Amino acid sequence: MARFASADQANPPPRGGIEFIGSSSIRFWESLATDFPGQPVFNRGFGGSEVRDSTWYAGQIVVPYA
């Protein structure tokens, strides 16, 4: 979560962007922007996460971008 906060300070995600959350399958999705051309996508995947983890951290990784 600290990594996301630091990255947001340096380069904030697009306003109204489409957020992808999940496990390492999302985290290592390097072609996300290419796979969704013209869409303001950003990645918030974190390794080993499960749905309950995304719920637990929603206040840090989802709500700020809503």
From TrEMBL:
SUPFAM superfamilies: SGNH hydrolase. This is Putative lipase.
